[in-house]
Design a protein that fits this description.
single chain, 399 residues, alpha/beta, 7-stranded mixed beta sheet, binds 4'-deoxy-4'-aminopyridoxal-5'-phosphate, EC 2.6.1.-, Aminotransferase, transaminase activity
């Protein structure tokens, strides 16, 4: 017997496992549509010009690296609030939003989950079926029981909206409902504004606790348009959690830049909530890291850098949408008997392509094209060099 002899081998992360298999594949024509990162037309993760500029200025300034405040950089937290809730938000003016810098969107979810566990230990958490694979593990890890609410309907490539509402209406008060504010991962299928209005109404009426996860703001229809759901909840005055991430929108994946924002009912509540969030952070990692936060803050708070970044974000958004329509057209041209038009209507980096696990296996084995077994493909990994091969391969496996 040793200290670790009873330790079982934990299951491998399925997507990271897919990456290992991709890296080991010797075929030069291989394409990785599995991972959740944006690559440019050259197939590389871009370093945005605005980021590069801000980094140069930061190096030139040779600033010392003291500890940040527990809640992070004040100018960063304020910029996050404006991006999410709008420059003119009445809630911001009334000090009804608390924002803390977090280690990416994941870190924001974790701080929020830990705080919620102290607040309401017996609450149940509901996540969409399907959802980002880390949602369940993260909330279970924080000690919650997690259930799925109906979301994706494969027959229509849409949302099982009536079933979703029925589920929400059946939940006990205090149930935490995790919602993808835009660019749903993994399906790419979002609620319409009308549907969001109904969700807000039911959440408010039933006393549910909305936890909005927004990891792709700016990748759907634009920065403000993608925040519509967040703002609908804010307008309704509902106490809410929002985890946000700049990993994709600034292409700063490894810098871990995100934030947790909480909408409260008063400035006084905000003070109390902030004090508790600081306790959660202090006992986890004490204070957030400097570099990514400083870069994002410098860009969001400087009009020239911000304009440059918004343009680059727009380029990424447009490129993804072009890849969507292009894939649909190329599949049609390749004689695919199925209509893939729904792919153009989806938003964000991902698409539930409708491919079966067997078809995904064939794509990998016969063509060196890697996708997740659920049929999720990362549209942001398509480019003008690989899209013809991908369309031809998909057409071949579906017939
Ligand atoms: N939420 C969702 C829905 C995501 O897709 C992701 C990342 N893929 C995250 C949160 C986490 O983002 P981050 O990498 O910033 O931790």
């Amino acid at each position: 017997m040793t200290l670790f002899s009873a330790v079982e081998l934990a299951p491998r992360d399925p997507i990271l496992g897919l990456n290992d298999a991709f890296n080991a594949d010797a075929r030069p024509s291989k394409v990785n549509l599995g991972v959740g990162v944006y690559t440019n037309d050259a197939g590389r993760i871009p370093l945005l010009r605005a980021v590069s500029e801000a980094e140069k200025a930061r190096v030139a300034a040779a600033t010392p690296r003291g500890y940040l405040p527990i809640e992070g950089i004040a100018a960063y937290d304020q910029a996050v609030q404006s991006m999410l809730f709008g420059n003119d938000s009445a809630l911001i003016k009334a000090h009804r939003i608390v924002t803390v810098q977090a280690l990416g969107g994941t870190g924001a979810l974790k701080i929020g989950a830990d705080f919620l566990k102290r607040l309401n230990p017996s609450a149940q958490v509901a996540i969409s079926d399907p959802s980002w694979e880390n949602h369940r593990a993260l909330f279970e890890g924080a000690g919650f029981a997690v259930v799925n609410y109906p979301y994706y309907e494969s027959a229509t490539h849409g949302v099982a909206f009536d079933a979703l509402i029925a589920a929400f209406e059946s939940y006990a008060r205090g149930t935490i409902v995790v919602l993808h504010a835009c660019c749903h991962n993994p399906t790419g299928v979002d609620l319409t504004t009308e549907q969001w209005r109904k969700v807000v109404e039911v959440v408010a009426a039933r006393g549910l606790v909305p936890f909005l996860d927004i990891a792709y703001q700016g990748f759907g229809d634009g920065i403000d348009a993608d925040a519509a759901a967040v703002r609908l909840f804010a307008d309704a005055g509902v106490s809410a959690f929002v985890s946000s991430s700049f990993s994709k929108s600034f292409s700063l994946y490894g810098e871990r830049v995100g934030a947790l924002s909480i909408v409260t009912q008063s400035a006084d509540e905000s003070k109390h909530v902030l004090s508790q969030l600081k306790r959660v952070i202090r006992t986890n990692y004490s204070t957030p890291p400097t570099h990514g936060g400083m870069i994002v803050s410098a860009i969001l708070n400087d009009s020239a850098l911000r304009a440059m970044w918004e343009e680059e974000l727009g380029e990424m958004r447009t490129r993804i949408r072009t890849m969507r329509t292009s894939l649909v057209e190329k599949l049609r041209a390749a004689g695919a008997r199925r209509d893939f038009g729904f792919v153009s209507a989806q938003r964000g980096m991902f698409s539930y392509s409708g491919l079966s696990a067997q078809q995904v296996d064939r794509l990998r084995e016969e063509f060196g094209i890697y996708a997740v077994g659920t049929g999720r493909i990362c549209v942001a990994a398509l480019n003008t060099r690989n899209i013809d091969a991908v369309a031809a391969a998909i057409a071949a496996v579906i017939d």
